[in-house]
Amino acid sequence: MYPGVILGQRLVPCKCAGCYVPGGRFAHAASAIMSVATSKAAGVPFVVACSPPRGDTINPAVAYALTLAKADAILAIGGVQAIATMAFGLFNRKTRRYHC
Hints:
Elements: E1 16-20, H1 29-41, E2 46-51, H2 60-68, E3 73-76, H3 79-88
Parallel strand pairs: 1-2, 2-3
Helix pairs in contact: 1-2
């Protein structure tokens, strides 16, 4: 319609994805499946998931959902610390450490 305008989509592959799953007072097991399983279905080879601990560990329902969705790494960390860990990297694939 407009000269010089091109529309479309561009598929850019990712090597890894970080997924935050709320799990504080109210656990969101569905968020684990929606974020991790979607990343795996899209072909992302390494998926890291973070969920805040409630006591000594993360919520069992969230842990089960993350395992079911095939998360490669599950970290019991929440809040801004989890976001920073995923944004700046902590692991790489060969040494099971995440450096994206």
